[in-house]
Structures are given as structure tokens and as C-alpha cells.
Design goal:
Layout lengths: L23 E2 H4 L6 E5 L5 H9 L4 E6 L2 H13 L6 E5 L2 H4 L3 E2 L4 E7 L17 H10 E11 L2 H12 L4 E3 L8 E2 L9 H8 L5 E7 L10
The structure holds S-adenosylmethionine.
Length: 220
């Protein structure tokens, strides 16, 4: 996947991005202590703020493909005094997560209402897919969580099928063996989630957990 270079006239061309390099350490993006959580596609960023308020111990990074929203939200986080533990970076999560290190360093991934594309010719834009799931599984700690929400029933079924097919992820919903969750247990909602709830529409929620990695034995 090629890196997108904004046009020189784009008003948000200075949106913050990950540093250059094949491997970018999370600790170099947000130094300090506390578990890392990643939101893919934070849009206007409401979840980042609400989650930071609910969990003052976590460090949060949002990866947002739109220059405008990544720039505005990152600036607002800074203005709110959260810049040392929460960032909104401009990135295509599918390619940029591949550069993050180390493995097994993220406690939770959030995807709230991803992929607002419906036309067949837009299929290549879909963020959810094997490439993204491989990065998520690599970066999650053992037992770490992937939480996905959507208001589109067919999309929930598709996501469930795709995630269930990943060998390193197992369902962790309300009932054993199921990924479905009735509620969002993270004490924070995304802007779209607030709107869907206000409109009285159903939200489909899925949770998966990273399987425990096999122990590496020294045969020498
Ligand atoms: C329907 S909006 C939902 C926004 C927010 N998560 C919410 O629930 O209010 C989907 C978001 O995902 C972002 N997005 C789509 N594809 C992406 C990708 N490949 N990498 C990062 N962000 C992406 C879009 O720009 C948009 O902000």
C-alpha cells in the first residue's frame, strides 16, 4: 500500500503522522506509563476524550485517514491537556499499524462504526480485512480485546465472519463461544454511537480476545 501524500495546498496537510521508519515504537509516540489502547477511525474524536476521562491510566492513539479530523482532534486533545497521553494521527490504519512495535503491546483495539462505504467499487476502501486483523492480532497482548460496533446488521455479520476466521482471535462476548455484546462496557461512546442511540436504532457489538501465545522453548 502506498503512503498518501497530501497536496501542497491542502489546509490540513500538517496533520500529525507516525514518525518515518520501518518500525515505530509506541513508547516513542506516547512516552510514559500505562496500557496502550488504539482506536481505528476516531473521526471527530469523541470516544478518545470520553475514554481518557473514564480511564486516566491509559494511553490512547487514534488512527484517522481524514487529514482534517486527525488534525483538529489532535489539536483539541492537546488543548484539553491530554496531549501527553492521547493522540489522533493521520494514517491509513491498514498500512500504518504494520509499522508499530513491539508485538504484544496493546490492550484494546476499538473500531466504532467503521466503513461507511456501500458501493461495490468502494470495496477496496474497507478498513476491516485480513491485513488489519493480522496487525491487530500481532499488537494485542495475550487476552487483549478487539471491540467492534456497527448499526448495519449485514456489516456486523461480515465482521464477525472475518474476525472469527482469524486463528489468533477468539469470541469474548456476553455468552461463552459468542462474540455478541448487548452493551458497550468501556464507559465511553463514539459520536456515531451517541447519535444511533438517540435515534433509537440498534447497535451491533462484537468483542474478540487475543488467544494466549504459545510459549517459546529454547531447544539449544
Ligand atoms: C462512519 S465514521 C465513524 C467515526 C467514529 N468512529 C464514530 O463512531 O463516530 C468511520 C471513520 O473511519 C475513518 N476511516 C475509514 N477508513 C479508514 C482507514 N483505512 N484508516 C483510518 N481511518 C479510517 C473515516 O475517515 C471515518 O472517520
Amino acid at each position: 500500500m502506498t503512503t498518501y501524500t497530501p497536496s501542497p495546498n491542502h489546509p490540513y496537510k500538517h496533520a500529525p503522522r507516525l514518525p518515518e521508519g520501518d518500525r515505530v515504537r509506541l513508547d516513542d509516540v506516547l512516552p510514559g506509563s500505562g496500557p496502550f489502547e488504539i482506536e481505528i477511525g476516531p473521526g471527530r474524536g469523541g470516544f478518545l476524550f470520553e475514554r481518557c476521562a473514564a480511564r486516566p491510566d491509559v494511553r490512547m492513539i487514534g488512527f484517522e485517514i481524514r487529514l482534517k479530523w486527525s488534525a483538529i482532534v489532535d489539536e483539541k486533545l492537546r488543548q484539553a491537556g491530554l496531549g501527553s497521553r492521547a493522540r489522533s494521527l493521520n494514517a491509513d490504519a491498514r498500512s500504518e499499524l504494520q509499522r508499530l512495535a513491539p508485538d504484544a503491546s496493546v490492550t484494546t483495539f476499538f473500531l466504532h462504526f467503521p466503513d461507511p462505504w456501500w458501493k461495490k467499487r468502494h470495496t477496496k476502501r474497507l478498513v476491516m480485512g485480513p491485513e488489519l486483523l493480522d496487525s491487530i492480532a500481532r499488537l494485542l497482548i495475550d487476552g487483549g480485546e478487539l471491540f467492534v460496533q456497527t448499526d448495519v446488521e449485514e456489516r456486523a455479520a461480515l465482521y464477525d465472519e472475518q474476525i472469527a476466521a482469524h486463528p489468533d482471535l477468539e469470541p469474548a462476548g456476553d455468552a461463552p463461544g459468542s462474540s455478541n455484546m448487548l452493551e458497550n462496557p468501556y464507559e465511553a461512546r463514539s459520536p456515531r454511537e451517541h447519535r444511533v442511540i438517540e435515534d433509537g436504532l440498534p447497535v451491533h457489538r462484537l468483542r474478540y480476545r487475543r488467544r494466549v501465545r504459545a510459549a517459546v522453548t529454547d531447544q539449544s
